[in-house]
Specification:
The chain is built from 8 helices and no strands. The chain is mainly alpha-helical and 186 residues long. It has one domain: Up-down Bundle (Glycerol uptake facilitator protein). Helix 2 packs parallel to helix 7, helix 3 packs across helix 6 and helix 4 packs parallel to helix 7.
Length: 186
């Protein structure tokens, strides 16, 4: 929640590329800004992994996302798809029209991430964020499960976008402001 409260007003708190893509697909966020956000998200994730490495030393697979013990890659993929569908549904819902709750969207989004992590962490690591999984794989050269954590969240985000469009229709001014970090209309 602190990320949403501290940088939400500046950037819309896009720490996840799936959030950025979903807002852009829904036409709440300009496509011309997507590459810059993806670059910043990737650099941020790589810096986070390197900070952990500096603090903890060279630990193999530091933060690499992997399915839980006895969980197949396909099951982990579907769990990541489902988790990200939920996350992006909450994200788009709390930034649209009458549901726009402004800064308090941080409570809904942060709460969802906590609950998702608690129940799905042991199953799939509950990444829900492609760069959160890509950066540790890059740093430790562990690529065996990366497909799960790239494709699952992207598919979940695309599905959430489709459902949001069906339920709420085209973008609203309030959603545009929330996705881009501008003050929201209350």
């Amino acid at each position: 929640m602190f990320v949403f409260y501290t940088i939400g007003g500046v950037s819309g708190a896009h720490v996840n590329p799936v959030t950025t893509f979903s807002y852009a697909l829904h036409r709440n966020f300009p496509w011309r800004r997507v590459p810059g956000y993806l670059f910043a998200q990737s650099v941020g994730a790589i810096c986070a992994v390197e900070l952990l490495r500096a603090l903890l030393g060279h630990v193999d697979e530091l933060g690499v996302s992997v399915p839980g013990h006895g969980v197949s890659g396909l099951t982990a993929f579907y769990v990541e798809l489902l988790l990200t569908f939920g996350l992006i549904t909450v994200t788009l819902a709390t930034a649209s029209g009458t549901n726009n709750v402004g800064p308090n969207a941080a409570i809904a989004r942060g709460g969802y991430i906590v609950v998702a992590g608690l129940w799905a962490g042991p199953i799939s690591d509950a990444s829900m964020n492609p760069v959160r999984s890509f950066a540790p794989a890059l740093a430790s050269n562990q690529w065996s499960h990366v497909w799960i954590y790239l494709l699952g969240p992207l598919a979940g985000g695309a599905l959430a976008f489709g459902v949001a469009w069906i339920l709420r229709g085209p973008p609203t001014l309030a959603a545009n402001e929330a996705s881009q970090g501008e003050p929201t209309a209350q």
